[in-house]
Amino acid sequence: MTQNASAPQPLKIAVLGAGTVGTDVIRLLGQHPKDFAHRAGAPLEIIGIGVRDSSKDRGPHVDRSLIRDDLEALVEEADIVVEVMGGQEPARSLILHALENGASVITANKALLATDGPALYEAADRHGVDISFEAAVAGAIPLIRPLRDSLAGDRIERVLGIVNGTTNYILDAMTRTGQSFDDALADAQRLGYAEADPTADVEGQDAAAKASILASLAFHSRVHLDDVFLEGITRISSDDVAAAERLGRVIKLLSVVERVTGEDGSEAISARVYPVMLPNAHPLASVGEAFNAVFVEAEAAGELMFYGQGAGGAPTASAVLGDLVSVARNRVFGGKEPDESFYAKLPTAGLDALSNPFYLALTVVDRPGVLADVAGILSENGISISTIHQEGATDPEGSGASAHIGIVTHTAGEKDMQTALDQLRSRDTVTSVDSLVRVEGE
Asked: Is-catalytic flag, 210?
């Protein structure tokens, strides 16, 4: 709807969810109403706060008279719906209902966008309204608009980033203090950086949803969550972190999306999340604690880096409110956010299409010829060794000495490395394959 600029009517805002983010959205909007009215072109009036449990105390910033549990009726009354409740349902149904009733939508729901984004974008386009999601990927960091708008005249080749604050805090703590994974996770939970059930974070699921969104935006294609290769950080040990330090590197969980070119010249999209060893000189290596950072490589613009708070109530609310102002302007003055861009329709490529260096840690029988045997297996699979380091020897219960070796390879194919690992595991001289970590940023 278009309002008379001289006497704008308030825009009716429905907020779905009054958790950490929702409460901060409500608080900040209530603290600066005149500023928001000037920026948006009209007053922004919260007409209801939709929650599942209306009996729960929401704190001093949430007006209890606005609490609603009739969520479908609430979204029907709104000009703009802010969805910060999370989860698949009822969020999906409520967003679709809002769009069908002519309301614009702002959401921070990365899991929903990664699995069902196209249906939501199509509904918004069909009904001529906006759906905005700046807060869905990197909290307060402005990233969606730069990828979609600022770099629209460029060709993005690669995006890699630290987009999960919980895992970055854990790996950073392991690096700084030498803690085990379990101890670092316990500290993260105590400090509020990790949930009581941290599975979505430590197994990489949260980062994979964000990789799906980034890949879709960067390469003008639809990349579903199921298209993202996923490996979390639960297998990263303090020995791996110490090995990285000896090698002048640091371990980070990265979301990586990039164009890959096949032998026939065709292009595809690789989207993956896994722990990597980064050189200490890489810009992402110094990102500590629960911060996020995203590194973009574009054809004309070159290398760009976005850094800041990637989670938390106030930082995420900042991104939500930025979307709210933009969407409100469109409703007041006319206009619309860009529709989904998926004209390229690039397919996705599996790990077998990739090549990179690796760090490989093995426990082997400590006797002459074993290293030559290991090197021979790697060589047979087209994998050459860059550096090799014996990390120590043990003689448990007098059963025979074992050696721990760490190997960094030159660039090798993923498929070749997996074949080599199967062969190494079959050797009686190899007690165990302890770690395999990709190396990026060389």
From this structure: yes
